[in-house]
Specification:
The protein has 14 helices and twelve strands. It binds NADP nicotinamide-adenine-dinucleotide phosphate (NAP) and magnesium ion.
């Protein structure tokens, strides 16, 4: 936070450009300052969300993916593999204009072309009394970028891609999303076929029902509002925020890995007071292993990929054998009776990793 303040937030822009140049990045949790943080850190400005800045430079989409561990069962019994959520993060109700109308009158939808063409006017409703109206939009380029990022990530994860909308009701708006998705899938059909990745379009309510019954192992592309709501449902369904990773994927295939949680402020202040904490580092470790794997894949260095997979396996085994932080202890099955402190968990993972490597023939 201090360095962002010292550089006038240039470091965030530099970081995004570095990811553009190198193709892979890792991000730690950052503070998005509110008024209290501005005072606490004596900031020059209430700097914008770094995630927002990086996302707009990379034109990327954020995908959340849970980490599955045998003794941390998801709330939904059928879920066996990760359900990755991709949320379109532009437009719809998040960039809408609304009016509360006081009494009778007519609401219209008007489009005035800046070049050639007729002005278009359509009636929304004749009000007999008070009510409310909303105007919202999306752009073809944003939807296309979103579809491309979803395809890239489904290919990278080798999981099926689902997209749901309500095109039976919203024939134009939701229908537009469906068509743009279908066009992008058609363009990528060889790559999808080769990777064994199938694309399914469904009605959003059908998608919700299918997701609850599925065993997971899929990427669910969601319109903005659906993604906002469903990502929180999926995250809590899988258990702890400490087991949720997040990757930002650009339409041209650049990847930024991070933990989905924030700086875990409450624990940090305990730490500052000198109190022990039990903060789960798994999502942060997986951000690094995800990035290392991707790097190894791009550089064709399988030993790097293997190392990352080994670290992930060691972390998983550590939890499966009963060493875990408090957030996981509360939901573990079978129950465990004590929890590891922040550093104890990391030491346990490091110890296992050392053993793993010293056990390997030279
Ligand atoms: P948070 O850091 O995600 O933590 C919220 C709560 O979730 C914690 O207090 C803790 O619950 C639990 N939790 C989250 N991660 C955990 C972990 N690894 N291990 C154990 N428990 C965990 O959200 P926040 O406290 O609302 O936000 C703190 C700061 O992070 C804010 O400045 C915010 O702007 C920033 N933030 C950044 C990102 C990002 O960079 N991607 C994302 C979200 C928030 P208990 O208190 O019950 O133990
Ligand atoms: Mg939400």
């Amino acid at each position: 936070m201090r360095h962002r303040d010292d550089t006038g937030d240039q470091v965030t822009t530099d970081a995004a450009n570095a990811i553009k140049e190198y193709g892979v990045g890792v991000k730690c949790a950052t503070i998005t300052p509110n008024a209290a943080r501005v005072k606490e850190y004596n900031l020059k400005e209430q700097w914008k969300s770094p995630n927002g800045t990086i996302r707009s430079i990379l034109d990327g989409t954020v995908f959340r993916k849970p980490i599955i561990i045998k003794n941390i069962p998801p709330g939904v019994r059928s879920w066996k593999k990760p359900i990755i959520i991709g949320r379109h993060a532009y437009g719809d109700i998040y960039k809408s204009t609304e009016i509360v109308v006081a009494g009778p009158g007519t609401a219209e939808l008007v489009f005035t072309p800046s070049g050639e063409g007729e002005k278009r006017v359509m009636k929304i409703h004749d009000f007999n009394g008070p009510g409310v109206i909303m105007g919202m939009h999306n752009t073809e380029s944003s939807i296309r970028s979103f579809a491309q990022a979803c395809i890239n990530n489904a290919l990278s994860e080798k999981v099926d891609l689902w997209f749901g909308a309500k095109d039976t009701i919203s024939k134009q708006y939701h229908g537009f999303f469906r068509d743009v998705f279908a066009e992008e899938v058609e363009k990528a059909k060889d790559a999808l076929l080769q990777a064994g990745v199938r694309y399914r379009y469904m009605l959003i309510d059908d998608a919700v029902a299918q997701v609850m019954k599925s065993e997971g192992g899929l990427l669910w592309a969601c319109m903005n509002y659906d993604g906002d709501v469903m990502s929180d449902m999926i995250a809590s369904g899988f258990g702890s925020l400490g087991l949720m990773t997040s990757v930002l994927v650009s339409p041209d295939g650049k990847f930024e890995f991070e933990a989905a949680h924030g700086t875990v402020m409450r624990h940090y202040y305990e730490h500052l007071k000198g109190n022990p904490t039990s903060t789960n580092s798994i999502a942060s470790i997986f951000a690094w292993t995800g990035a290392l794997s991707k790097r190894g894949e791009l550089d064709n260095t399988p030993e790097v990929v293997k190392f990352a997979q080994t670290v992930e396996q060691v972390v998983t085994e550590t939890v499966e054998q009963g060493t875990m932080t408090k957030d996981l202890m509360l939901i573990a099955e079978p129950k465990v009776s004590n929890y590891a402190l922040t550093e104890e968990f990391i030491d346990a993972v490091a110890g296992r990793l050392k053993k793993q490597f010293s056990a390997r023939p030279a």
